[in-house]
Amino acid sequence: MDDLDRRILAAWMTDARRSLRDIAAEVGVSPTTVHERARALRRRGVVRGTVLDLDLAALGRGVQALIAVRVRPPSRANIEAFRDWVARLPETVGVFVTSGRSDFIVHVAVASNDELYAFVIDRLTARGEVADVETSVIYENLRRPDVHLGADA
């Protein structure tokens, strides 16, 4: 990835709905160049798609938590089975397979503290391979709309 790719991505990350023509004007190259670069970035898997940024509270899922989960025994089969299962649950926003004390960090969004409690007790700890859970309620979620792309971005 060269400097032009980084400048295109930096401009694009501010609003994924922007036209490539607008991005071309901002970075100072032709629209054709930006279209070709954008196509190449997608083909190489650098840009995987665009997503909606949903307000989970407005959707009735205003209680969010990060749940650290440890599975035992820590075998590949247990890790992959738990990962695949928890990723399919409707409460799950994201799943991170981690190293260290926990094997997973699971980001969930639910309607209430009662739902969070039921999720942890009735769903997570009911699984035989789950040895330990630690739940941290998210008070506020601040996400950067961009990612630092390296030099000159």
Provide the descriptors you would attach to this structure in a database record:
153 residues, alpha+beta, Arc Repressor Mutant, subunit A, Alpha-Beta Plaits, 2 domains, 4-stranded antiparallel sheet, 5 helices, 37% helix, 20% strand, elongated
**Fourth-level CATH superfamily of the largest domain:** Lrp/AsnC effector binding domain/regulation of amino acid metabolism (RAM) domain
CATH topology of the largest domain: Alpha-Beta Plaits
Largest sheet: 4 strands, antiparallel
Distance between the termini: 11 Å
Classification by helices and strands:
alpha+beta
Range of strand content: 15-25%
Strand order of the largest sheet: 2-3-1-4
CATH 2nd-level architecture of the largest domain: 2-Layer Sandwich
**Total count of domains:** 2
Radius of gyration: 20 Å
Approximate helicity band: 25-40%
How many strand segments? 4
Which residues form runs of ≥5 with pLDDT under 50?
none
- Could you tell me the mean pLDDT? 93
Summarize the structure.
With 153 residues, the chain is of the alpha+beta class. The chain contains 5 helices and 4 strands; from the N terminus they run αααβαββαβ. The longest helix has 13 residues, at 31-43.
Describe the structure.
This protein is an alpha+beta fold and 153 residues long. The protein has 2 domains: 3-43, Arc Repressor Mutant, subunit A; 63-138, Alpha-Beta Plaits. Helix content is 37%, strand content 20%. It contains 5 helices and 4 strands. It has helices at residues 3-13, 20-27, 31-43, 76-88, 113-124, and strands at residues 63-71, 92-97, 104-110, 130-138. A 4-stranded antiparallel sheet has the order 2-3-1-4. The longest helix has 13 residues, at 31-43. The chain is elongated, with a radius of gyration of 20 Å. 18% of the residues are buried. The model has no long low-confidence stretch (mean pLDDT 93).
